[in-house]
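Hallway conversation turned thread

IA: we were arguing at lunch whether anyone had actually written out Molecular chaperone DjlA end to end. Turns out nobody had. So, for the record, here is the sequence (252 residues) and right after it the structure tokens. Reply here if something looks off.
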Amino acid sequence: MGNFTKYLGATLGWSFGGPIGGIIGFVLGSFIDGFSSDDLRQEETYGRTRTTRDPRMATQPGDFEISLLILAAVVIKADGKVDKRELSYVRRHFNQMYGATRANHAFKLFNGIIKNNNISTRQVCLQIRQNMTHASRLQLIHFLFGIAKADDFVSELEVNMIHKIAGYLSISNYDFESIKAMFYSGVNNAYKILEIEKSASDAEVKKAYRKLVKKHHPDKLQHLGKEHLKGAEEKFRQIQKAYEDIQKERGL
């Protein structure tokens, strides 16, 4: 248990308090009796002495990681069942980002979160919104759609839940539809990704592309660590592909 709690100490930042901290407390309580918030604070102190934290950044890699796990659990349970393929997607994604050891700790925490039936999605999202940059919140939504698509079918219940989360995170409907369209094929979806209508002029298409490049550029997530840049780069490539598909369709 010691290594697991030290992992938590090393990853928790602003997420230690508030509703997210309460969820972590629930998970720890299910693992070990008598584990108090003082114990967790000690582990957090241990973790902070071992990690470099930039005081200019409200969000640290661990904060994003915990937020991602909690919202992933909410989406996975949105259709009333826990699909093994979706669980595998989360485990595989964390393995790719963090390596086997850290991913195993994260998945242990994730399994505990899945069992918590009292998560207030709104309160969790409000805490995330107060502490996380807009670019980081966009990346969370992109990851959640990836989970929903892991079983090759995005149910209406999952889409509705991600839309609700996006609203709580102050993600506009344009941004939501843009990210959603990245998980569907077709030229019409290319226009949705660029947040424009098919009737847009060539100049408007180019302007929309430049705006999206600026909004979703991977450099905006540098503070989360290199492990999170792969997902940002994939989203960036989808925006570029959408622009190229429209150019090809129009013969530009």
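OS: looked through it. The domain at 184-252 is CATH 1.10.287.110 (Helix Hairpins).
IA: good, adding that to the notes. DSSP finds 13 helices and no strands in the chain.
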